UniProtKB/TrEMBL annotation:
GO terms for biological process: signal transduction. Residues 19-161 form the TIR domain. Keywords: NAD. It holds the Pfam family TIR. The keyword NAD applies. It comes from Lithospermum erythrorhizon (Purple gromwell). This is TIR domain-containing protein.
Length: 161
């Protein structure tokens, strides 16, 4: 009888053991931090879901260093897309990284229409125009692609504030 040795580095399950967070929350702080995002965070936390939200930084950590790591070590993401989401290069960088990871990403359309997110219309049109002047067409193109992907997903539409 032959005994098979499993190389843990080759196992698809290995990456699951490295994940620290169940959910990464991406949101525009000024729009939803003290309302929808806080309520969602508390509800998930109460159920034992390990959620990364930007307030879980440890002493000496910076968002610039911690966000890519948190996205990498999260098994899924919730992107709370609000009217000012695309005014933040931080949010758009997060969204692009989330899309690049290929893990489950669930959009919440908070006070915005999914078609406006997908087509970058309404408040997103102005934000992307401003960002193109500052960051260039190539970088903003990556962000636009991520918004189109997320705007095309089935998510939760929340129009109440």
């Amino acid at each position: 009888m032959e005994i098979l040795e499993v190389d843990p580095e080759a196992s698809p399950l290995t990456s699951a053991f490295k994940l620290r967070w169940d959910v990464f929350l991406s949101f525009r702080g000024e729009d939803t931090r003290h309302t929808f995002t806080l309520n969602l965070f508390q509800a998930l936390d109460t159920k034992g879901v390990q959620v990364f939200k930007d307030n879980v930084l440890e002493e000496g950590d910076t968002l610039k260093e911690k966000l890519p790591e948190a996205i990498t070590y999260s098994s899924s993401s919730v992107a709370i897309i609000s009217k000012n989401y695309a005014s933040s290069h931080w949010c758009l960088d997060e969204l692009a990284m989330i899309c690049d990871m290929g893990r489950p990403a669930f959009p919440v359309f908070y006070g915005v229409e999914p078609r406006d997110v997908r087509n970058q219309k309404g408040p997103f049109e102005e934000h992307f125009g401003t960002l193109e002047k500052e960051y260039g067409v190539e970088k903003v193109g990556r962000w636009r692609k991520a918004m189109k992907i997320v705007g095309g997903k089935i998510g939760f539409v929340c129009n109440s504030r």
